[in-house]
Specification:
With 216 residues, the chain is of the alpha/beta class. It has one domain (3-203): NAD(P)-binding Rossmann-like Domain (Rossmann fold, 3-Layer(aba) Sandwich). The protein contains 9 helices and 10 strands. The chain is globular.
C-alpha cells in the first residue's frame, strides 16, 4: 500500500482526507510547518482498519509515495515550491480552493493561471498534478460514522495519474471517484466549492456533490 503525505494536513479538510485514507489501509503522514502540532492533531484521529496516521513536518510528508496539498490557498505555491525536489516524479493531488469570505457567502477567487491546481502544476513542472477532494464537508469526512455518500470530481492532464487517484478515492469509505477530464476543468471545479460552502452556511447543512445518472 502506498504511503500518502498530506501537506498542510492539520486543517479540517486535510484531517478528513487523512483519516479516510488511513481507514482504507494507507499509512498517512499529516504534514505541518509545526511538526509538534501535526503529531498532536494526528493523535486525535482514530482510523479504522489497517492504516495509520502520523504527524510530521511538511518536509517529511513530502517524502511519501503520493502527496496531497491541503494548505490554505494563499500559502500553497510557496509551500510546494520549497518541496519541489521531493515532489518530482510523484502524483501530487491538489485539493486547494482559492476562496474569499464576503458576509455569509464564500466567493471564488481566480489565480493568475485560472485555478490553484494550474498554479501548483506550474510550480511543480516535474510532478503529476491531479485535482480531487474539493467539494467535501470536512466535518462529515472526519466523522467516520457520518452517512457520507459523495462523488469526488477528479481532473488532470495525466490520464494514468488521474486513474491512480480515482482508484485511491474508490477505496475510501463514503466516496466515489468521478473522472471529469483535463486540467482545463480545474477552474470550474474549484470555484464550485464556493457554491457548496455558501449553501451549507445558508442552510446550516453539510451537503456535498452527488451526480445523478452515473453508474458507479
Amino acid at each position: 500500500m502506498s504511503t500518502v503525505g498530506v501537506i498542510g494536513g492539520t486543517g479540517p479538510a486535510g484531517q478528513g482526507v487523512g483519516v479516510r485514507l488511513a481507514s482504507a489501509g494507507y499509512d498517512v503522514v499529516l504534514g505541518s510547518r509545526d511538526a509538534q502540532r501535526a503529531a498532536e492533531v494526528a493523535a486525535l484521529l482514530v482510523p479504522r482498519g489497517t492504516g495509520s496516521v502520523a504527524g510530521a513536518a511538511n518536509e517529511d510528508a513530502a517524502l511519501c509515495d503520493v502527496v496531497v496539498v491541503a494548505t490554505p490557498w494563499d500559502s500553497a505555491v510557496a509551500t510546494v515550491s520549497a518541496l519541489r525536489e521531493s515532489l518530482t516524479g510523484k502524483v501530487v493531488i491538489s485539493m486547494v480552493n482559492a476562496l474569499a469570505r464576503e458576509g455569509r457567502e464564500l466567493v471564488p477567487l481566480y489565480p493568475p493561471r485560472g485555478s490553484m491546481a494550474a498554479q501548483i502544476a506550474h510550480t511543480l513542472p516535474g510532478s503529476r498534478i491531479v485535482g480531487a477532494f474539493h467539494h467535501l464537508p470536512a466535518s462529515e469526512m472526519i466523522d467516520l460514522d457520518s452517512d457520507l455518500d459523495a462523488d469526488v470530481v477528479i481532473f488532470g492532464d495525466d490520464p494514468v495519474a488521474r486513474e491512480s487517484v480515482a482508484h485511491m478515492v474508490e477505496t475510501m469509505a463514503g466516496l466515489h471517484a468521478v473522472v471529469a477530464g483535463s486540467m482545463s476543468l480545474a477552474s470550474a471545479t474549484e470555484a464550485f466549492t464556493a457554491v457548496c460552502i455558501s449553501i451549507n452556511i445558508r442552510h446550516k447543512a453539510h451537503s456535498y456533490v452527488k451526480l445523478a445518472g452515473l453508474h458507479h
